[in-house]
Write a structure and sequence with these properties.
This protein is α/β, with parallel strands linked by helices. The chain has one domain: Aldolase class I (TIM Barrel), CATH 3.20.20. The chain is built from 14 helices and eight strands. It has an eight-stranded parallel sheet with strand order 1-2-3-4-5-6-7-8. Helix 7 packs parallel to helix 9 and helix 12 packs parallel to helix 13. The longest helix has 19 residues. It starts with a helix and ends in a 12-residue tail after the last helix. 47% of the residues are buried.
């Protein structure tokens, strides 16, 4: 059963979801060729500055380490609000992403800005915990002021073929979130195949996720343009049959502006300009921001700034 046949009447019963998942097929060679073709696209100098500033607005500055302190969160949150204090033309980032225990600290810093506070939950990054614990984790983050929640799919259940458990957990966590935006991390480096990536994307979107996200950033293969293209096409199918626009977040290994622009090209070509905003597309890559700021400065002054020029997050 195609996605069209299953959801054209907006009746996402579990049997329909399973029909979609069980019949997922992806033209792997086509994905690779399309991605390679889009990587050759270039943008003109006058459009590049706009693209770089868009990337800044799409960045989720993230710190998810055991050594995180309140001071570190304050510093990162301040940077998110004013990435380049010497250039007021540079916009703020989209969000800061922290552990639940540090949400309130970040919230105090960004409360009078456009920067959201995101929190990982559901026992990030493994997701290996009972649903009750995941729900408690998520409720706590929201009670502390989180605007967005990033969860991880139950990969154990996925690889065991228990797709209903994967779906039910996401559905339950979305119910807890309510109007709080839910991003569901697929961990594409573990899923490995394009068909698995699409299956996981379908499960997450059908269960109510507002965003699908490539990775926790805790494994070596966190993101790829090919995976992004597969996710874009799944989002496009989902939207084209009346279920609204959903977002995509790419995280893990995106460190320079050139690579980020390639992702923007994919999103623009596969989904259109409407998705080129923080409402529907994000980068989870704190190290990316410094390179983007350097490139903005280069375009404006024709000279590169040293890395220490920009305040560290």
């Amino acid at each position: 059963m195609s996605l069209n046949n299953a959801i054209k009447d907006k009746q996402l019963e579990w049997s329909s979801v399973m029909d979609i998942v069980n019949n997922v097929r992806v033209d792997e060679l086509g994905v690779i060729e399309r991605t390679s073709s889009l990587a050759t696209r270039s943008i003109k100098r006058e459009a590049k500055l706009d693209a770089l500033k868009r990337i800044v607005t799409m960045c989720d500055l993230t710190t998810l380490e055991g050594e995180d302190t309140e001071g570190k969160i304050v510093q990162m949150s301040s940077k998110a609000m004013s990435p380049d204090p010497g250039d007021p033309d540079v916009p703020s980032a989209a969000a800061v992403c922290v552990y639940p225990a540090l949400v309130s600290t970040a919230k105090k810093v960004v409360k009078n800005s456009n920067v959201n506070v995101a929190s990982v939950s559901s026992y990030f990054p493994s997701g290996q915990a009972p649903l009750e614990s995941k729900i408690s984790d998520t409720k706590f983050a929201i009670s502390e002021g989180a605007d967005e929640i990033d969860i991880v799919i139950n990969r154990k259940a996925f690889f065991e073929g228990d797709y209903r458990k994967v779906y039910d957990e996401i559905y339950s966590l979305k119910e807890v979130c309510g109007n709080t935006h839910l991003k569901t991390i697929l961990e594409i480096g573990e899923l490995k195949t394009f068909e698995n990536i699409k299956k996981a994307s379908v499960l997450a979107l059908c269960a109510g996720s507002d965003f699908i996200k490539t990775s926790t950033g805790k494994i070596s293969n966190g993101s790829s343009r090919e995976a992004c293209l597969v996710m874009c096409r799944t989002v496009r199918e989902f939207e084209s049959f009346g279920f609204g626009k959903k977002g995509i977040k790419v995280a893990g290994g995106i460190r320079d502006a050139k690579d980020a622009i390639r992702y923007l090209v994919i999103v623009n070509e596969e989904l259109g300009d409407e998705w080129l905003s923080s409402k529907y597309f994000r980068f989870g890559a704190s190290s990316l921001l410094d390179d983007v700021l350097k490139q903005i400065k280069k375009l404006k002054t024709n000279a590169y700034q040293s890395s220490y020029y920009f305040p560290r997050g």
